[in-house]
């Protein structure tokens, strides 16, 4: 902590309630880091640490870069997963994308930042932009057909 957040450690008494390493699938061809879940005694400590980490941008542990992120609920994770396919396609076309909390897609187009809380709003917007329409061709139609087939069952 002191390595990355010296001022934060000095000004507050941060206490960890629980810490555990999560086993993950090992890939012998690629060294993959293991996740560590840390539960703080105070939510404010977690929020302060994450805020300072975002501002600093590069957090290290013993000189090795690490990434800090908040843990999401199952509902939030599911909502964010629903954007994965669209996110992957748009990212492959070099668009500057972000998933805002809880699950809102945001990207820059024509110098403006556009945000979409759901796929329906994105679909409406895409129909006005020829370039995006070409990029997303097939993504919405296939899902719409599946929805229509299962809607009445």
Automatic annotation (TrEMBL):
<dbReference type="Pfam" id="PF02994">
    <property type="entry name" value="Transposase_22"/>
</dbReference>
<feature type="domain" description="L1 transposable element dsRBD-like">
    <location>
        <begin position="75"/>
        <end position="137"/>
    </location>
</feature>
<protein>
    <recommendedName>
        <fullName>L1 transposable element RRM domain-containing protein</fullName>
    </recommendedName>
</protein>
<feature type="domain" description="L1 transposable element RRM">
    <location>
        <begin position="2"/>
        <end position="71"/>
    </location>
</feature>
<comment type="similarity">
    <text>Belongs to the transposase 22 family.</text>
</comment>
<dbReference type="InterPro" id="IPR004244">
    <property type="entry name" value="Transposase_22"/>
</dbReference>
<dbReference type="InterPro" id="IPR035300">
    <property type="entry name" value="L1_dsRBD"/>
</dbReference>
<dbReference type="Pfam" id="PF17490">
    <property type="entry name" value="Tnp_22_dsRBD"/>
</dbReference>
<dbReference type="InterPro" id="IPR042566">
    <property type="entry name" value="L1_C"/>
</dbReference>
<dbReference type="InterPro" id="IPR043636">
    <property type="entry name" value="L1_RRM_dom"/>
</dbReference>
């Amino acid at each position: 902590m002191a390595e990355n957040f010296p001022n934060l450690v000095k000004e507050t008494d941060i206490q960890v309630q629980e810490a555990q390493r999560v086993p993950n699938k090992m890939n012998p061809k690629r060294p993959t880091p293991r996740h560590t879940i840390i539960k703080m005694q105070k939510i404010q400590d977690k929020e302060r640490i994450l805020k300072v980490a975002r501002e600093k941008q590069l957090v290290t542990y013993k000189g090795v870069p690490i990434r800090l992120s908040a843990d999401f609920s199952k509902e939030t994770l599911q909502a964010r997963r629903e954007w994965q396919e669209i996110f992957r396609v748009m990212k492959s076309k070099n668009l500057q994308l972000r998933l805002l909390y809880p699950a809102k897609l945001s990207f820059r187009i024509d110098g403006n930042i556009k945000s979409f809380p759901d796929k329906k709003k994105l679909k409406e917007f895409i129909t006005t932009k020829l370039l995006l329409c070409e990029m997303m061709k097939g993504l919405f139609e296939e899902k719409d057909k599946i929805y229509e087939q299962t809607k009445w069952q």
